[in-house]
Design goal:
Elements: H1 6-24, H2 37-46, E1 53-55, E2 71-73, H3 83-91, H4 99-110, H5 127-144
Parallel strand pairs: 1-2
Helix pairs in contact: 2-5, 3-5
Length: about 150
């Protein structure tokens, strides 16, 4: 099947963002309407997030090829402290590059081994996958940290 044109691919995202914009101003902050944890785990695997990430207190299969790096999500609350931060980290991962990540990349970048930051998954991820992935990671952060989203 032929890939849909740009307007067809962007329309679901615009509809989703339009439906959640009023929620951002609501007490308690922004939340996607829905999202299933198990489907989010499946999206995490399907989108190949496990190529670089593990998730605290979560059993996941090994990646198909050796990990380039291993960044444990929900292992420590450093940059993602709220649900909104989680959405930004998924949709715009370039907003924060940790010193640990920068140190790992220095040698590899010099030899042209790996890309400097997480790929832009918004080009390949459906709106449903985004909602489910956010639900999955939100549950992992809540299970690991009492102060998350407080």
């Amino acid at each position: 099947m032929k890939n849909p044109s740009l307007p067809v691919r962007v329309l679901p995202w615009l509809c989703l963002l339009g439906s959640i914009a009023p929620l951002a101003a609501a007490p308690g902050g922004f939340r996607f309407p829905g999202g299933e944890v198990e489907s989010g785990r499946e999206a995490f695997i399907a989108l190949n997030c496990l190529q670089c990430h593990t998730v605290a207190k979560t059993e996941l299969p090994d990646p198909k090829s050796p990990r380039r790096i291993e960044l444990n999500l929900a292992g420590q609350v450093r940059f993602v402290k709220r649900y909104e931060d989680l959405v930004v980290a998924i949709t715009n991962p370039r907003h924060v590059v940790t010193e640990q990540y920068r140190a790992i990349l220095t040698g590899a970048e010099a030899s042209g081994g790996i890309e400097p930051v997480m790929p832009d998954l918004t080009r390949d991820m459906s709106a449903r996958q985004l909602m489910d992935l956010t639900a999955f990671l939100d549950a992992a952060f809540r299970a690991s940290h009492e102060t998350y989203d407080k």
